[in-house]
Design goal:
single chain, 87 residues, alpha+beta, two-stranded antiparallel sheet, 1 helix, 4 strands
């Protein structure tokens, strides 16, 4: 320790909780037909429905767990970073 500092043996008093990580994804959907526009709207709706907690008798039920991967065509893109499962 340096001069003018004191040691606090009760460091656990400063700890409050771990920080939860958040992820923000921004996508630009550009459908080229009415069928693609319908599919895009369905994808957005599914994300909203399955990402929201449900109310259960005054308590909230945890939303579903997501596993996000980067895809190139129908293959997983191994050159991009991987994500752990998240709710």
């Amino acid at each position: 320790m340096q001069r003018g500092q004191i040691y606090n043996p009760n460091v656990e008093l400063f700890y409050q909780a771990p920080n939860l990580r958040t992820f923000n994804f921004d996508f630009v959907f550009s459908p080229k037909s009415q069928d693609e526009a319908t599919t895009v709207n369905n994808i957005i709706k599914e994300f909203k429905v399955w990402s929201s907690p449900e109310e259960n008798g005054g308590m909230y039920k945890v939303p579903c767990v997501w596993e996000v991967t980067y895809m190139t065509g129908s293959e997983q893109n191994k050159n991009m970073n991987a994500f752990k499962k998240a709710a």
